[in-house]
Amino acid sequence: MKIVVIGGNGFIGRELCRRAVEAGHEVTSVARSGPPDPAVRGPWAAAVEWRAADVFAPQDWRDVLEGADSVVHSIGIIEEHPTEGVTFERVNGDAGIIAALESERAGVDRFVYVSSSTTPPRTRSAYLTAKRRAEAAIADLAVESVVLRPGPVYGPEQPHFPAPVNALFGLLGRFDVVARQFGADRPLSVETVGRATLDVAVRERVPDEPIDGPTIATQYGGSRTGD
Fold it and tell me: What is the pTM of this model?
């Protein structure tokens, strides 16, 4: 299958690209920064087509959608820089809608939107509002869509959380009896989320409702939540 990852150079996007390549799929990433830094990529990266393009300029990347079976949108921020046009409304909301509209236009079979179950600590509520707005807009399109709503995602090279916070989420996520206390907001490893994202991108049938953290942990987390 051909999979296009919008934000393939991001934290979750890289994990998805790696897994998709290792599973034998054709993979293209669309990200402003192009390929990942050599320090955080492996030999799998050579098999990915890295398109350096801005999601808000679809004329520069819509050609990669030709023949795509699935498009995955994994872009997201938890900090804003309004003077640079980097806001929750734009990046967490509008970017996903644009990618979905382009997927519909290209006749892509499935669009996967990586959302979130909750707003991170000390982050404006607009973070989640923008994601929910994108979810609602995508649901009205002709392209088949599926939404993932993981809680906090931890793992190596996590760019959004301070190292102690990332380590704490990792500790909590590795013990199922503890992680379950967080309900839909349970911490999940990037490996688990990457595994879930790839599966819903390629499986024959997907659920109509958003897939929440507990479901992701149960179906894709292995013997331990953090695996």
Answer: 0.92
